[in-house]
Amino acid sequence: MDFGSADSWGEAIYFWIIPVVLGDAIFPPIPSEMVVITGGALSADGRANILLVLALAALASWTGDIVVFQLFRRRLSHVLDRWKWGRRVHQGIHVALAKAGRSSTYGGIIGARFIPGGRLATSAAAGIANVSVRGFSLCAGLGAVLWACWLVGLGYFTGSATKLPFWASSLIGVVLGLVVGAVVGIIVTRRRGNRSPVEEPGPLG
What we know:
Blueprint: H1 6-24, H2 32-44, H3 50-73, H4 84-100, H5 106-111, H6 118-128, H7 133-162, H8 166-188
Pfam families: VTT_dom
Protein name: Membrane protein DedA, SNARE-associated domain
Membrane topology: Multi-pass membrane protein
């Protein structure tokens, strides 16, 4: 794959979206935002179908949220502790919960995904708090659609407005998204969460 070729990315973007966005549900450092924004930039360049990019991003986001929610609702988080990488992820969940707070309200489920680590934190907290499956599913679905529209729209807008190569438009979109996410994060996390409600994982081995 030629990473500088718009044609190569246009052919592959659909296959990247689902695993990357799903992985981001448990491990936030995975750059799902960049992949989805790139999909929007490619759509502006006529290299990808914007509706398909939107649908795949929203579906993957919703599925990832459901997986995390069920994992913590069924108290299966100890499964992560069987492996070194899982314990690192588990500790990362504590960090995300501490930063994003422990809100399991429906508004938090929808909106917190727009701040770094917020998607993981709210899904885990909702599972721990035994939020209804139907309520969480509906809110996570709505949040996933809004999140996908925001990121794909950001990539499409920067691609259409700048007329730069898709990779440059993607980088501009990522920077804008990070700035907006940081502002939202500062507003939302002024009242930081208390100690994480997740059982502490054992020491890393």
